[in-house]
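Issue 218. Parser rejects a valid record. Input:
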Amino acid sequence: MPLTATNVVNVAAVSNRTGQVKYHQTATVTFDASYVTGGEPLAGSLVGLTNVDFVVVNPRNTGTEVVVWDRAADTLMIFTADGTQATSTSDQSAVTCELLAIGS
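Output the parser choked on:
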């Protein structure tokens, strides 16, 4: 179970200038006990979306870790205090973050 999301809330539905509706979802995301090098995939369905266009991460209870969204790979990555990515299969189950995901 790579990522879990709780407190998923649709905070807004906004039409852009071309008439497309973009949903703004907030969620609290928790990692699991076996981190994957390159980051954990952020499926749109995890946060109530079909497609994720943009993510803003607000670190929470991360201690010295920093959570970053990799737009190209659509993953959430964990970096340690020394700037290196968390090691593969490491236990990151204590790492949670709040995020705002925008998409359709």
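Fixed in the parser; the record now loads. The CA atoms of residues 51 and 96 lie 22 Å apart.
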